[in-house]
Amino acid sequence: MIDFIIKSSFSLSVFFIFYKLFLENEKMHLFNRFYLLTTLVFSLVIPFITIQTANEIPLQNFQTFISEPIVIKQKESSFFQFNWTVLFFACYGLVTLTFFIRFTKNVLNLLKKAKANPFIYFKNTKVILVEEVTIPYTFLNFIFVNKHDFQNNQIQEELFSHELVHIHQKHTLDILFIEMLKTIFWFNPLFYAYKKAIQLNHEFLADENIVKKYNNVPFYQALLLNTNGNKPIYLASNLNYLVTKKRLIMMTKSTSKRMNFIKKTFSLAIMASLFLFLSLKVNAQEKATTTSKKSIKNTAQSSSYYDNTIVVFKDKKGNQREVKYADLDEENKKRIPPPPPEARRMKVSEIQFDKFKNKTNCAVWIDGVVIENEKLNSLSSNDFVFVTESFVHKNARSKRFPQEYQVSLYTEKGFVKAFLNKKDFAPNQTIYLDGTKK
């Protein structure tokens, strides 16, 4: 979820900044409408797309200190642990539901208003006559106008034509789309900025059509100024919910076809670049670090993994002791096996697999069960989805396992049980810190 929000927000930010700086004030409104809607969809989809650059992931070399076995048991928590995740999603769901109810209510109110008031047909469009004092505005296939102004011929033809453009180009669908996204991503201010940009683009498109049709820019500009100051209608296209100054400037602005072509090309290049940047996943080889760095990393991971753990062992006097992991000294902590490695499937290469067949150098386990190395001859590297390899120091080797390396191979079933189903994975070993066996 966090990864989705980060990637989509980053993508939206880049696209929106580019739009505000280079596209919004250019007279290529149809392309801008396509750009705004496409980048919205693109930013929501791109987090789910991953391109693998390599088919084979090299072996991760987990260097650990192999000691004698130890008994580890999980301690039952003695206090109530509050689940903040549940609270977070409950709050998110409540706010989202509130916004969805508000959105649905506004849509139904406009449909109810269209049905409850008298109407006439104007150029195959329903004109709804309402009592409220308002300038014409549209929603879906309806134009809402003040009944008194209409009956007294106080509504200019240009205003009707302006609203017809909104209807014919189906601008309401754009608004409904962004409003639905705002309902889900109400916490992200980028969607609010996108809505304003989309609405302004709609007005540019309508103005452009009116200027071409009537070819009287001064009169139309004066008409807009006279209608300035009216309250905008939620979910509807109307003449005043945007900055009128931008619209007046845009009507008289000239455009360079060459510059527009360059900016369109750059916008597509940015989209392609973001696609590669956010979806490309490089399977780079993880090189082995020094023992000291690995030891520090393992200690930090263990501190979290063994938070509620009791270590049972015999001290040098032979007395059995139970000690919290946090109370162990650093020397004894190093004797405890590190936590399971990060659960990430990997491909075992043929070179690695052949190396594991050498019983002189490697002791091998499959899904936690020790096997004879010869058994690997009847298996394939493709039978396994995960592997760890540990170096065993001389003082930790035994007669049964004198090899320098201990290798654990996992099939899909064993991988899921050991690393994905945490409840099924619990270290259950025994160690005596004085080095003597029972």
UniProtKB/TrEMBL annotation:
The keyword Transferase does not apply. The chain crosses the membrane at residues 6-22, 34-54, 82-103, 261-280. Residues 156-233 form the Peptidase M56 domain. It holds the Pfam family Peptidase_M56. Keywords: Membrane, Transmembrane, Transmembrane helix. It comes from the Bacteria. This is BlaR1 peptidase M56. It comes from Flavobacterium lacus. The lineage of its organism: Bacteria, Pseudomonadati, Bacteroidota, Flavobacteriia, Flavobacteriales.
